[in-house]
Every structure is written in structure tokens, then in C-alpha cells.
Design a protein that fits this description.
Number of strands: 0
Structural class: mainly alpha
Oligomer: single chain
Low-confidence stretches: none
Radius of gyration: 25 Å
Mean pLDDT: 80
Number of helices: 9
Distance between the termini: 51 Å
Shape: elongated
Helix content: over 70%
Order of helices and strands: HHHHHHHHH
Length: 233
């Protein structure tokens, strides 16, 4: 009896192992992705606000509590200049205006009046998150507007890396797990690290000073990753 029970348990265990994995796609996957996007965006705004408060509190920025308002005004000037020059396939001003109009209507705020009125005292501390949030939205709109440039640079770099990979295959070059690991870090550091710093840093530099190096560095990473990919795959 004990042996039969043991055999049945083994058969039942093997049956469980033979079952196909549970399907996790469909609507659930879309909802999880949407939740993750909202969660990451929310946490990004919180970090940007905390950084601004810390920089002002410890005196690392000029103009004190008025710093965030002046930074927002500078970014609006960037939007106006770029709108007239047609620098982007996706206009950052259109992206920003769409998002900001919905937010201002939702909360009933007059952003133009807030930007043109210097705040002092406790009121300045209270309005700081508002200016930081809108500044971060403008930064995100520039990221969206730069997506065509990301695509073009990445495609060119991947094509160049593919040529190098073919050359390595035909010349009998050796595979290197270390080079592959380094190339993957060359992609991740600009796209995650540098992009995160750009979004949360309380600076008033033009976004192209951040985004162009990020595009180029991540493109070089894609080129290296394609060139060092396992030649037997």
C-alpha cells in the first residue's frame, strides 16, 4: 500500500510538472503594464519634488523658494522657441499643452497667473510641488518628442553592429560574455540612470543638452550589444 501511494504521488507530481504554464497575457497584462506606468510616473514626480525641496532647504540652488517657478518659466521659453523653429517631428509644445490643459481643468488652477506671480513665505513652499510637476511634464514631453531621433539612431547603430557581428563570425572571432555584459550596461546606464537624473534634476538647461548624449550613448550600447551577440545564435 505504501509503495502504491508513493507511486501515485510520483505520478501526480509528474502530472503537475507536465501541465502547461498558466496564461498571464491578455487584459491582465495590459492592466499590469498600465499600473506600472502610472506607478513609475507617480514615484518620479515624488522624487523630483523631494529633490527640489532638499536643494532649496540646503541652499544648493539660486533664488531659494522661487527657483522652481523660474525653472518652469525657462522651460516654457524653450517650448515657445522650439515651436517656431520646428526642431521636432513631434511638437513638445503640443504634447505639453494637451497634458497641462487637462490637469489645469481638473484642479481649476491658472498656471499662467501662478508662473507670473513670485511667491514668498509658506505659500512659496506650498506651490513648489506644482511648479516641479509641470516642469517634469515638460521634460517628459521632450522625451516623447525625441522618440523619432531615438529610433533613427538606434536602427543605424544596430545595423552597424550587425555588420560587425557578421565580420566576427566569418573571421572566427571569439565570443565574450564580458563584452556582452558591458554592452548591455552601456544601454541601461544612459536610458535608466542618465534619463532619471535628467527628469528629477532641478536644472534649467535645454533638454537637448541631456537627451542628445543619452541618444548617442544608448545607440553605441545597442551597436556593441549587436556586435558582441553570440555568433552561433
Amino acid at each position: 500500500m505504501a509503495q502504491e501511494k508513493r507511486v501515485n504521488n510520483q505520478q501526480g507530481g509528474s502530472g503537475d510538472r507536465d501541465k502547461p504554464p498558466r496564461y498571464t497575457g491578455g487584459v491582465g497584462a495590459i492592466l499590469r503594464l498600465a499600473f506600472e506606468v502610472v506607478y513609475i510616473s507617480f514615484m518620479l514626480l515624488i522624487i523630483a519634488i523631494v529633490v527640489e525641496y532638499a536643494m532649496v532647504f540646503f541652499g544648493f540652488v539660486d533664488n531659494g523658494t522661487d527657483h522652481s517657478r523660474l525653472v518652469l518659466m525657462n522651460y516654457f521659453e524653450f517650448l515657445t522657441e522650439d515651436k517656431g523653429a520646428n526642431h521636432y517631428l513631434i511638437d513638445p509644445l503640443s504634447v505639453t499643452s494637451y497634458v497641462m490643459n487637462n490637469i489645469t481643468q481638473l484642479f481649476g488652477t491658472n498656471l499662467s497667473e501662478l508662473m507670473l506671480t513670485p511667491q514668498t513665505g509658506i505659500k512659496a513652499w506650498l506651490y513648489m510641488p506644482v511648479f516641479v510637476i509641470f516642469t517634469t511634464i515638460i521634460k517628459m514631453s521632450y522625451v516623447v518628442s525625441t522618440l523619432p531621433l531615438f529610433g533613427v539612431v538606434w536602427l543605424c547603430m544596430i545595423a552597424d553592429g550587425y555588420v560587425l557581428r557578421k565580420e566576427r563570425i566569418y573571421t572566427g572571432g571569439r565570443d565574450s560574455g564580458l563584452n556582452w555584459s558591458i554592452s548591455m550596461h552601456m544601454i541601461g546606464v544612459p536610458l535608466v540612470g542618465c534619463l532619471l537624473i535628467y527628469l528629477i534634476a532641478p536644472t534649467d538647461n535645454h533638454p537637448t543638452l541631456w537627451l542628445v548624449p543619452i541618444v548617442l550613448l544608448s545607440g553605441i550600447g545597442f551597436r556593441a550589444a549587436t556586435a558582441t551577440f553570440n555568433k552561433f545564435n
